[in-house]
């Protein structure tokens, strides 16, 4: 496999393109695209790709981008798109619809702060506002993970036991525009990894079919239950896809959570995305100093990996959840799900929330050190702690 120095956006665009090309012997590929900073380079890459059987459709808005992508998927094409921030918000109605239609769409989301006030830097609030939609969600730490997870997402989404769309997320600029060495997947290997898509409920010219019509309450409930059952199958199917990926490409795309020095850890940091890179280095230094500190990187957020997370923190008595996101009035989103995962399982575990890196703020080793210092003084959890904020006389009362 060739290794190139590329950006995260390039990695995503490449993965989407070769995945689409791999369906050329079936019904091909198609996507709707609309640019938005810092995602634009992804759709620029895809628009230039020489698909054997495929069409890239530039449209007038993000809402239409997902509409075109859904139309392609409904007709059996391997479909995908990409967006960011307020573009995702504008697309939200159709994002919801795609999940309930059980369309195996893959969307790459470059996490950017929702405005106003306008801000182009990293914040996970744009995709986490979709946390209750029928979509799988993965958060990537670096360029290689973006590429690998995007390819794996197609295999997982299109598996008959799942048939749900997938969000692959990366931090704006920190990943999207930073160049690192990345191993590119050869088209022949991608062809082996991704079977031809045969969507069981696609539209067919010889058969009259209605999608999205009126359903009675018991029918709607049955559909929701089927989605829930599919979500529960995701962890097992993910491991099957991961094993196949490793065999074909010769590298591990990573588990749903990834641990570092947690076996005997007293204190555990829980982080996602690029914050995990910084936290891992802090943990390494503290381990060298004799401290029993560990790290859990959460890669899969939906469905939330409760069992794996509980197992990873089994020796801990304190946990710090680092959130680059904020749900108004209730704290960080990863923290909320972490607390729920341990409810009824660990009454003795202190789980404290730290809001850091919001709106693109830097999460430096010093910030992680301050978090661990605060965590070490606590005998019980308190309200979420805001990190990196200085008091201002202009604060609204």
Overview of the structural elements:
This protein is an alpha/beta fold. The protein has 2 domains: 3-199 and 213-249, Thiamin diphosphate (ThDP)-binding fold, Pyr/PP domains (Rossmann fold); 258-386, Rossmann fold, CATH 3.40.50.920. 39% of the residues lie in helices and 19% in strands. The protein is built from 12 helices and 15 strands. Strands 3-2-4-5-7-6-12 form a 7-stranded mixed beta sheet. Strands 9-11-10-13-14-15 form a 6-stranded mixed beta sheet, with helices on both faces. Helix 1 packs parallel to helix 2, helix 3 packs parallel to helix 4 and helix 10 packs across helix 11. The chain is globular.
Comma- or semicolon-separated keywords:
alpha/beta; seven-stranded mixed beta sheet; Rossmann fold; 19% strand; 397 residues; 2 domains; disordered C terminus; six-stranded mixed beta sheet
At a glance:
This protein is of the alpha/beta class and 397 residues long. The protein has twelve helices and 15 strands.
Give the helices and strands as they follow along the chain. Answer: EHEHEHEHEHEHEEHHEEHEEHEHEHE
Strand content: 15-25%
- The CATH homologous superfamily of the largest domain corresponds to Thiamin diphosphate (ThDP)-binding fold, Pyr/PP domains
Q: What's the average pLDDT?
A: 96
- What's the story with the biggest beta sheet? 7 strands, mixed
Shape by Cα distribution: globular
State the secondary-structure class. alpha/beta
Task: State the assembly state of the protein chains.
Answer: single chain
Total domain units: 2
